[in-house]
Amino acid sequence: MWAGRHVILGVSGGIACYKSCHLARRLTEAGACVDVVLTRSAAEFVRPLTFEALTGRPVLTSLWEPDRALAHVRLADAADLVILAPATAQLLARAAQGMADDVLTALLLARTAPVLAAPAMNDAMYANDATGRNIATLAARGWAFVGPEVGPLAEGPSDRPGRMSDPETILAHAARLLGRGSRLAGRTVLVTAGPTREPIDPVRVVTNRSSGKMGYRLAEAAWARGADVVLVSGPVTLPPPIGVRLRSVETTRDLETAVAEELPRADVLIMAAAPADFRPSLPSNAKRARIDGALAIPMEPTADILRATVAARPAGSVIVGFALETGDAIQKARAKLQSKALDLIVVNDAFEPGAGFDVDTNRVAILDREGNARVVPLGSKRQVAEAILDAVEERLGG
Q1: Which whole-number Å values give the CA distances from 139 to 127, 143, 184, in the listed order?
Q2: N or C terminus: fewer CB in 10 A for the chain?
Q3: For residue range 144-193, what is the model confidence (pLDDT) as tens digits?
Q4: Read out DSSP for 343-391?
Q5: Domains of the chain by range and CATH?
Q6: How far apart are CA 100 and CA 77, in angstroms?
Q7: What is d(CA 391, CA 375) in angstroms, rounded to the nearest whole number?
């Protein structure tokens, strides 16, 4: 996503400047070429040397810097994206008026790249009608905005918007802005993730080791590509992905219901959840007392959710299944691909080091219904998610 991208990070003068340091670092770590442009007041909060150390590139602070004549024009021509964080009330007002009285506003007039602004200011300033009109003017010119949020301000607690969004939120919205050219942009992607829990009694459950990490990375990556994402998740400890609509479920029956309700509007279904295959036939309404000797719990099969979707799948949709196996993985996955009428199936071996449940990496093979196989080498689950979505996009119409 970020490798080789040229990002201008414009920083205007507000206490939220300290968050911009983390944003500069995250963009650089992700592989972007980051040029920071500071207003004069921003340089009073954070010195240019700080951003230079974080990005490894010189920082632009003035139209009058020696040996950097027209630097703002060259940067504006080269940029893939301009991020303004923080975007103060003053900066928004000057930009709305088309002013070019410092290096940052001059660059904004010269650029053709998209702009993502993260407003940050006192809550009363943000609530002022003048600020609202300025934001509306800039939005009409194509600017995108993230935040502000409700939270503590420099002057104390507040229950109104004004606080700048956190760097990770800004980064996610910036990635989505760059993903507008994806075939997933504007499509609805339904992702399932995590385990299900089947009750034995009010205290005990039957479940599995799924952490939900693969499904969550898929949801994040699809949203970054511009999709509208619905994530149906079993019980996990992961934070909800930014921008994604989350539906939390507990049992396999809950998961089946949620998928059935969401599927008619989906262009893509990615069934990354690990639902229980069996559930106790007669769960107890009270906690089972400890007994001596063995305990026998009658079990019954749960529904095969993916197979049950066949008749309800929208025309032209892409259906992706997952197969986590413990032997003959490819052969078993091909059988599931056919029996469940899938377009793609993602398979990996539960015993392979660095793959499987509750780790941050994965190694998979992606099989399609034409008999082709694509091996994705060991990498982060986000990298594997991108490879899966590349395969999904190849099957979508233009």
Answers
A1: 17, 5, 23
A2: C
A3: 999 898 887 777 788 888 899 999 999 999 999 988 778 998 999 999 99
A4: SEEEEEETTSTT-STT-SEEEEEEEETTS-EEEEEEEEHHHHHHHHHHH
A5: 6-180 (3.40.50.1950), 182-276+299-395 (3.40.50.10300)
A6: 16
A7: 12
Distance CA 50, CA 38 (A): 11
pTM over 0.85: yes
| Nearest to 368, CA basis, from 333, 396, 317, 329 | 333
Tokens of 370: 């034409």
DSSP string, 107-147: HHHH--S-EEEEE---HHHHHSHHHHHHHHHHHHTT-EE--
Q: Distance between CA atoms of 194 and 299, rounded to whole angstroms?
A: 21
DSSP string, 174-237: HHHHHGGGSTTTT-EEEEEESB--EESSSS-EE-----SHHHHHHHHHHHHTT-EEEEEE-S--
Q: What is the chain's Cα-based Rg?
A: 25
Q: From CA 353, how far away is CA 364, in angstroms rounded?
A: 12
What local confidence, expressed as pLDDT, does residue 69 receive? Answer: 55
151: tokens are: 């939270």
What does the block give as tokens for 85?
Answer: 């964080």
Cα–Cα dist 332/340, whole Å: 12
Residue 328 has pLDDT above 70, yes or no: yes
Closest CA to 253 of 300, 183, 221: 300
Is 170 strand, coil or helix? Answer: helix
What band does 350 get if pLDDT is binned at 50, 70 and 90?
confident
